Amino acid sequence: MVADDEPLITAGIRTVLESASDIEVVATAADGSAAVREAVRFHPDVALVDITMPVLDGLDTLDELRRQAPAVRAVMLTSFGTEPNLLRALQNGAVGFVLKHCTPDELIHAVHAAHDGDAYLSPEITRLVLGMVTPTTGRRQDATERLAVLSARESEIAGLVAEGLSNADIGRRVHMSEATIKTYVSRVLSKLGCANRVEVALLVRDSRT
Asked: Are 58 and 98 spatial neighbours (Cβ–Cβ below 8 Å)?
């Protein structure tokens, strides 16, 4: 499902996604309230949700999706550098962010990642979120202690996650398969008690600052 209040953006996203043989856009919505209704009606696997919409904005839509359609994995659409609530959205269950100026391949990759239980965060989004939070001495110590539970390889993977790299990019960097990296990332998330990749990135950043 695609939820965006700009018809041209919605049409463009639909065209890009349906160029992939394994993706079908089952519904579109022009505001957050309609997005929730369509999600309940069509049960999409993935919802691309604009963070700025009328009636319900993307954050409130995310909250409603969690209550009324919890199986839907929400990826937020955003214009880089304009949104103050990226971290809140991730903490509330968004599995990723797609920049509106991303490439068609990135958009398709983000949907595939969300569908497969992974997440896609562009390096720009990761850096933006990291820049929103000022580390403190207490947080630095806490981050260091939490990261100490990781093995050397898990620490390496966590560091690459903090750079905003996708699983495929990490795999190329360390010469491992994407499936193996996915397993490592899941293990890192579990050991650290993190809900998503940005929380891992914040811990790594705090430990190094």
From this structure: no
Q: Is the model more confident about 123 or about 97?
A: 97
Separation of alpha carbons 61 and 33, rounded Å: 7
The whole-angstrom separation of Cα 66 and Cα 51 is 15
d(CA 134, CA 209): 10
Taking the C-alpha atoms of residue 191 and residue 84, their distance in angstroms, rounded to an integer, is 29
Give the containing element (helix H, strand E) for 68.
helix 58-68
Question: What DSSP assignment string belongs to 12-58?
Answer: HHHHHHTTSTT-----EESSHHHHHHHHHHH--SEEEEESS-SSS-H
Q: In the structure encoding, which two tokens stand for residue 121, read together?
A: 């965060």
DSSP secondary structure of 124-173: HHHHHHHHHS---HHHHHHHHHHHTTS-HHHHHHHHHHHTT--HHHHHHH
pTM of this prediction exceeds 0.70? yes
Residue 120 has φ and ψ, to the nearest 5°, of: -125, 120
For the chain, list the domains and their CATH numbers: 2-130 (3.40.50.2300), 135-208 (1.10.10.10)
Residue 194 in this model has a pLDDT that exceeds 90 = no
